[in-house]
Every structure is written in C-alpha cells, then in structure tokens.
Amino acid sequence: MIAWFSDPTHWTGSDGVFALVIQHLIYSGVALFFACLIGLPIGLYVGHTGRGVVLIAGLANALRSLPSLGLIVLLVILFGPVFTSDMAFIVPSIIVLVLLAVPPIMSGTYAGVAAVDPAAVDAARGMGKRPLDILFDVELPCALPLIFSGLRSATLQIISTATIAAYVSLGGLGRLIIDGRAQNDYYQMAAGAVLVGALALLVDLAIGILSRLTVSPGLTRRL
Amino acid sequence: MITFDAVSKHYRGQTVAVDKLSLTAPSGKLTIFVGPSGCGKTTSLRMVNRLIAPSSGRILLDGEPTDTMDVAVLRRKIGYVIQNAGLFPHRTVAQNIATTARLNGTPKDQALRIAHELLERVGLSSAFANRYPWQLSGGQQQRVGVARALASDPKFMLMDEPFSAVDPVVRGQLQDEFLRLQRDIGKTIIMVTHDIDEALKLGDQVVVLRTGGTLAQVATPQELLARPADDFVADFIGRDRGYRVLGFAEFAKGGVPLGAEPTATLGATPETLRQIATDRWVLVADSMNRPLGWADVDSVKGPLRDGDLNLSGTLAVEGSSLRHVLDAALSSPSGRGVIVGQSGELMGTVTLSHVAEAIEAARTGRMGTQP
Amino acid sequence: MRFDWLYRESGRIAELFLWHLGLSVIPVVIGLLLALPLGWLAQRAGFFRSTLLGAAGLLYTIPSLALFVLLPLVLGTRILDPMNVVVALTVYALALLVRTVSDGLESVPPDVIQAANAMGYRRLPRLFVVELPLAVPVIAAGLRVAVVSNVSIVSVAALIGTPQLGLLFTQGLQLRFLTPIIAGIVLCVLLAALLDGLVLFAAKRMTPWQPGGAER
C-alpha cells in the first residue's frame, strides 16, 4: 500500500487523489449546505415554539432506518431517465445525502434551542427584546454546542454515504474503493479507505475547531 | 405609581387566576405581593409588563394605560428580576448587565461603563466583569440580575421571588443590601414572594392575596401585624406575630438603659476572674474590646482559654430593633444581653427586665397614637 | 412491482433476510457485552473516560465502507469474509454503546447510590442490583439507535460482496429492475422496526417502575 501511495501518477490527473478529494469535498459541501438550509430553520422553529416535536422525532427515526445504498440505487433508476449527462447520478446521490443529513441537524438544533434555560428567555422577553432578537441573540448562541454536534454527525454521515455513492458512478474517494474492487486491486481499495478515513477525521477536526471558535466560553465552561 | 384597575385573568374561561384586582403601588415605594401558591401573585406581576395579557381590566404606569403601548417599549421601561437570575450564559457579567442599557439605545462603551459602576453598586468587585455566569455563586448571579435590571435606570421594577433561590444566610445579606440600595434609588417596585417574613422585612406596602386571586388585605407591615383583616390573613402571617412586631423600627427608639459590664481577657487566671465578677458570669472580650463570650467563674480551673467560653448569647447592634435586643437578653447565660457598636465593640449590657419595660412603654405609646 | 419475481426468488430473499438479521443483531449483542464493563470503567475513572470516549468517537468517525475494506489488513481475513462486516459493525456498536452505558450509569441519582451504600451494598452487588437496572432506559435508547443504524449499514456490505439484503440493491441496479430494490428497502425498514420494537419491549419489561412501563 505504501507503494501505491508513493506512485506519483496516483496523485495527480483527473482521477488522481487530489481531484478525488476535491470532488468528495464539493459533493459533501453542497449536500451539507442544502441540509442546513432545510434542517436549521425547522429545528429553530420547533425548538422556539415547541410545536411538531413528535413529528421531527418520528421523522428522524424513520429516516435512520432507511438503507442509504438502497435509496441511492432507487433514485438513480427513477431519476436516471429524466436527466442526461452526469446529473443522472449526481442529483439522486445529493438528494440522498441531504435526506440523511437533515435529521441530525434538525434534531440537534431543536434539542439545543429547547435546552436553553427558560429563565434566560423569560428575562430576555421581560426586558423587552423582540422575538427575533431573542432567537438570534439568546436562543441560537446558547444552542450552538448541540447544533454543532448535530452538524458533526450529519457531516460524517454525508462523507460516509458519498463514498458509497461511488457505486452509482459518483466521483470522490469512493471511486478508489469501487474501482479497486472491480479491478481486484486490493491496494487501491485500501488506499481509498485510508484516504476516506483520514478525510472524515480531518473534517471532524475542522468542525471541532470551528465550534471552539464560535461557541462562547460561557457555555463550554472552558477558560 | 403602578395602578391595577379591576384586573382579571382567566384561563380558557375556566380557572380564575386573578379576580378583579384593584390596587396602587405608590411611586418610590416597595410593594410586595404575598400569598400561598395559586393566589395569582406571579400572574399579577407578569401582567404589568404584559408577559401575560390581562383578560379584563387595565394596568396603568403613572396614569398611562399599558395595553396601548408597544409591548417591547413597555418592557424596556420596567426593570425585571426573576428567581434564578436568568443571566445569559454565553455573555460575560459586564455584557449581561449592559444588555438593558443597550436595549434602550445607550452606546456600547457607555453601557459597559454603566455596567462596571453597577457591579460595585450591588456589592461585586470589578474583577467579576469579565467572568461568565457559571463562574458565579447563586447569590452573585442574583446580584448581577439586579444590576442588569438597573442598567437602563428604569423608573419601575418587577421582582419575581428574587431572593428565594439562595440559602437563608445569603438571602438575609441580599435583602439587607437591597433595602440599602432601594433607599438610594427609590424605584417604584412590585416584588412577589411566598415568604411572609421577607414581605414584612422589605415591604413599604404588603398586598396579601388569597387562593383564587382575590385581594385579602393591602397594608403596611406594621398594620398587617397589628390588625389583620380576617382569619385568612391572621393565619397566613403566622403564630408569633406578637413577637415579630418587635422587629419594627418604632420600637428601636424605646431606649433600653445600658449597664456597664466589666470584661476579662483570654489568659486571665481564676483569681482575676473572681475579682472582676459581679456574679457567676464574666464577659470576655478581645484586645479591641469586642465581646468573645461568657466565662463561668465556678468552672474555670486554669488560665482562661477559648474552650472555656459559653457562646450561646447573641449580640444586638446598637440601634437595632427591640426584637434583637430581647433575643440578646434571652439567649445570654448571665441574663444580660450584650449590645455592641457598629464595628463590634462592646457598648454595655441590658437586663431582661429593662427590655420588658421598654417593650411595655413602646406598646402603650403605640396604642396611644392609634386613632 | 413484479410479484411473480418476488415469489420465484422468495427462497433466496428469505436467506438474505436471515443473513441480514444475523449481521445486524450479533454485532450489537457482542458490542453491548463489551460496552458494559468498558462503559462502567469510563463512568468511574476520569482518565478512562476521556481516553475511552475519545477512542470511541474516533472509531465512529470512520466511514463504514472504509472500515469494511481496511479490516482484512488488521484481521488477516479475506475481503469477502463476513467476519469483516461483523467486526466492523461490532466496532460501531461498541463505540456508540460505551458512551451510552457510561451516560446511563451517570444518570442514576446519587441519592440512590448513597442509600444503597448506607444499606451496606458492596460495589459489585450494587452495580448489578441498583445501578444497571436504573440505567436501563438510557442504555435501551442507545441500543435502539445502534440496532436501527446497523440494519442500514449492513446493506453497504453488498459493495464488497457479503450476502444480505443489500445484494438486492446491487442486483436491481445492474438489471435496472425496481422490484428487488423496493423489496430490499421495505424488508430493511421492517427489520429495523422489528428489532427496534423488540428492544423497546424488553426495556419496558425490565423497567416496570417507569411511568408507562409494564405493570406487574
């Protein structure tokens, strides 16, 4: 495997490691963006109003039990004829990635907002903060630790599932594993696995750093 | 002045939380709502800044009806202090205090300057300014909560059980400090408590509510103790109200004659003690003449040590109420109550019979001034 | 949907279902058995806590397909060996459950533990008679998550050829044929719901003292 990594032709070019890492990050980033766009507002709404708690808990459970590989394959066959070009597998894959990432973001945001000290919210209301100010000045900042933990599991879920989506021709590091399997090249598979693992750990670390920078030390109780 | 004009609150047309409440909380005074749980005291308080909307009736601030005001603007005029302080955990102490000033349009640096001033005002050093709420004790958080309410310098304040989440010792300190603060700032305050002692200690006016949200009595603490309106109020005030009356300032001026008390110091020999003693008990003081305790001449065998002292007697500070003076006399093993000055130095002792005379004099004096 | 195809293939599908069931359940059972002592250690000692939970978090980060591929390197197994899948899923279940067990033991009210101490319980009897039974609701909640996500992850192993319902997905894509895919998804969801319900039922039977629990 060291031999595989030390071969420079494996790193560069349109199917080299660099290009695959970039693809993996782009697909993951796009999916995460849409998942946040859906999950954050719903989580904030449910947490703020307390309406629909049962609904999002049930939804999160139901989505967790859906097999991601089955879903991707199903959507590729259903949507495949609608699109020409690469979109035939990119769109279904991204939809599944978003679908899997929404529940953790939604639940994390909801749990975070719901866990904000009711006394702090009451004080904010009593001193004359308007509802949107309460949401953005008090509830959101206080919910950040749990939002980040939801974001973290969503991101891991996306990176993991994007790897699987290589099976329906999606680009990214999963290619090395799937193509390696097709060519009976175990070293290429192992290299792909190592790279995906490393990518997941690095992204996880990056989110950890981001959360350390944005969450108030008043909440993390770190000095 | 905060006026309740026939204010009621029903929930879903069924249960009545507050029933046609009419009363006035006078300007610059501390009005206390007190009553058993379910008497609607907190609901009444929260209707003032419209955290709860009244079902009928009006509440007026200095004659201006609140129901037509913009709700956020109304709330910004009124300081709000709650039981668990409700500090923002993600903001520093100084930022927390500055919040209300910022909400009322004060520029940021000025708001932070106000925050630092108020921190000292509520008895916290400026070292606390950059700490976060979790680094503070419950009592300290509550002080910050009070400072935050004061930062916009509101004319009115609402306080919902502000001192009930801390232990009794800290509660006593916070109450004393708050009384001192209120003497300086003279806000128009409504405070809710379930603790009748707190109501009697702090209130200029006490509003007793009964279950179902009806008014039982509005009176000064003295009046409440002397003339409870009915059985409910009498029962709520409790058994030892006769003794409690002694706690009010009018009794303090009664003037109990002070007797000189000879003192010994630690290390004194039994012979010295017997020379000083007027009876079995000798008061022992330190080098600054601050009382340490009583020594029993009959049982001291060698030079006087810490362990020989009887510490059962309480100390009454000069000028404090007859309740404290009486307690000092009752608790002293010699039967002589120890009176000390503001810095703890011995002023003299009082006998139980002198205290009783003073109480008698004050009582007849009080009865005499009755209409 | 081609029900005639389903009927014809019912024998093979039932076999795949049983494989899927085994691959989902066995790792969670092993994971739980390992997580109980480890979670207990993590809850008791500060050093173990940060190390064990840190390691668990790290393992949980590795994508499933990557773990399936890498395990032969560690175990010396062949790539097609179902043992890789069992070990990988055990690792996930363990990583999740160590934290759950530790949180569960943490959730036991300190008053109860003090009362047990005051009655003279020694450490181990106290663990089995008092702490573990009281930790059941939290542990069961973690167990449900572990079981349900395992059912989903097992199907990924189809990409390296291990027999289970995931093979219906790869087969469906190769044949561009929806019936096996839908059948696979439905069976996966049913299996997840079944196992989830089983854990829920068992937990309720074990905690009759909980509001809404089984009455005896």
Automatic annotation (TrEMBL), chain C:
SUPFAM superfamilies cross-referenced by the UniProt entry: MetI-like
One GO term describing the cellular component: plasma membrane
InterPro entries: ABC_transp_perm/SBD (IPR051204), MetI-like (IPR000515), MetI-like_sf (IPR035906)
Keyword check for Membrane: yes
Record keywords: Membrane, Transmembrane, Transmembrane helix, Transport
Membrane topology field: Multi-pass membrane protein
Positions of transmembrane segments: 16-40, 52-73, 79-98, 132-161, 181-203
UniProt cross-references to PROSITE patterns, sorted A to Z: ABC_TM1
One Pfam family in the UniProt entry: BPD_transp_1
Chain ranges of the ABC transmembrane type-1 domain: 17-200
Membership in a protein family: Belongs to the binding-protein-dependent transport system permease family.
PANTHER family: GLYCINE BETAINE/L-PROLINE TRANSPORT SYSTEM PERMEASE PROTEIN PROW, OSMOPROTECTANT IMPORT PERMEASE PROTEIN OSMW
Protein name: ABC transporter permease subunit
Biological source species: Rhizobium straminoryzae
Taxonomic path: Bacteria, Pseudomonadati, Pseudomonadota, Alphaproteobacteria, Hyphomicrobiales
